[in-house]
Design brief:
This protein is α/β, with parallel strands linked by helices and about 280 residues long. It has helices at about 5-10, 25-30, 40-45, 55-65, 110-120, 140-150, 165-170, 185-195, 205-210, 220-235, 235-250, 255-275, and strands at about 20, 50-55, 75, 100, 130-135, 155-160, 175, 200, 215.
């Protein structure tokens, strides 16, 4: 069950239980998650016969928080759809040159860090925009920040279809993921597959996904992020290298491998149960 409902522990006594633990967002950021939405999550962690994680980082976080579960654990990395490797045409309405951010912007996602870093370099790149893809419309506070940073007309929020998403990545000068925490960080993988150079916060699972094919900065550090952006935007050779390295790395993350690892975990749990 997506939200660890207690009834599935109650209604199937004696059944073999394999759970997937995606991340520790409710525990690390309790003010951002409605109380009780994850229900019996800790019970699932403690009562499962085998536990799957999407990253080694997520596994470490769970063990650090809840302790060793005392049962086998398996890391099964997520994959990426083949359509992202095909890239796509520029998205209608997008600027010609842009830095891309994808997803929700509030809280630990740290969009404000990227916004401030972009403002620090904006005068040196007058044709460059910042596109926030997905999420809701800008809040009043975000609009005020954009105005105070003299970025009016340079920062836009846009929503695209799934079909358009690979093209949004592929035609970006840079993709930036400043998030302070991710259980996996799928947009990093999608952007690499589509050929967008990646800059990400050096935290949680993001280096595990990006490897040496991305550039990193300390989470929350506006000054270092702005330095990274300026250095990369002025170095076409490095951007080309990151595109090539990112595509090659993304190709190693497939849904087939994820499915095979998950199936193997189920078989392992059954073998253990059968002695």
């Amino acid at each position: 069950h997506t939200f660890y409902h207690p009834r599935f522990l109650r209604d199937f006594p004696g059944a073999l239980k394999v759970s997937t633990m995606h991340d520790m967002i409710p525990e690390k950021f309790p003010d951002l998650v409605p109380a009780g939405v994850h229900m019996a999550k800790e019970r699932y962690y403690r009562e499962s016969d085998l536990i799957l994680f999407p990253s080694q980082s997520a596994e470490r976080d769970f063990v650090d928080w809840y302790g060793d579960p005392g049962v086998p654990t398996v890391v099964a990395h997520h994959g990426v759809e083949r359509s992202f490797f095909e890239g796509g045409s520029p998205v209608a309405g997008f600027p010609s040159h842009y830095v891309l951010f994808v997803g929700r912007r509030g809280g630990y996602k740290d969009f404000d860090v990227l916004l401030t870093a972009f403002a620090a370099i904006a005068s040196g790149y007058p044709d460059l925009s910042l596109v926030a893809l997905g999420g809701d419309d800008f809040t009043d506070a975000e609009r005020a920040s954009i105005t105070s940073l003299n970025l009016t007309g340079r920062v836009i929020q846009q929503t695209v279809t799934d079909r358009e998403l690979p093209g949004a990545y592929a035609n970006a000068r840079l993709f930036v993921m400043p998030s302070r925490y991710e259980g996996f960080g799928l947009p990093v993988l999608e952007s690499m597959a589509a050929g967008a150079p990646v800059v990400a916060a050096d935290t949680s699972s993001l280096p595990e996904v990006g490897g040496h094919a991305a550039v990193y900065f300390p989470p929350g550090d506006v000054d270092v992020l702005s330095d990274r952006l300026a250095a990369l935007l002025g170095d076409d050779t490095q951007l080309s290298a990151l595109r090539e390295q990112g595509t090659a790395r993304a190709a190693t993350f497939t849904w087939r491998r994820q499915a095979e690892a998950t199936a193997a975990a189920y078989h392992l749990a059954r073998e253990i149960a059968n002695g």
